């Protein structure tokens, strides 16, 4: 009963996630995807201390339309719940006027987008810089495009932090029967914390 219940919950959650898959191809050209290791954690508490999976120190000069594009990839060895956050740090310019868009694809051609998020200088809400969801095992490709989005220069680091929790650890159902085995109490470990609100049971 426990295994069947867990499998049903995971299947339903992954179906909900798949509904948000978009199709936004990466622009044509040969892309060198820099391989990165995504940390595997046991619960969301460990996410608070996760270090950046990717960092790039960039300079976007005033009154130019230039952009900085970075391409990285990571591999999930098993089906996982993945969380990502984009932010800036070590900003040395007078003003922080950058905007970084992050797109995650399930193929190197960039035809099938599975996640997206943005880090915008004018948005102070932490949640707007975070995305999460269930991904199947396999290799994923991440495009980061940073532009200067106001009239000032930007010099600093753009960072992408990511972590994965294996699905088998996400929803650990516990079933306790009463003495007469006529009733059962079902409980779940608090692996995702407040992020579990987005998972439909």
Give a structural overview.
The protein is mainly beta and 201 residues long. Helix content is 12%, strand content 42%. The protein contains three helices and eleven strands; from the N terminus they run H-E-H-E-E-E-E-E-E-E-E-H-E-E. It has helices at 2-18, 44-47, 167-170; strands at 34-35, 54-60, 67-76, 80-89, 98-105, 113-120, 130-135, 138-148, 154-166, 173-177, 184-188. Strand 10 (173-177) and strand 11 form a beta hairpin. The longest helix has 17 residues, at 2-18. The radius of gyration is 20 Å and the shape is elongated. Mean pLDDT is 81; it is low at 11-25.
- SSE pattern: HEHEEEEEEEEHEE
The oligomeric state of the chains shown is single chain
Low-confidence stretches: 11-25
Largest sheet: 5 strands, mixed
Number of spatially distinct domains? 1
Number of strands: 11
**Average pLDDT for all residues:** 81
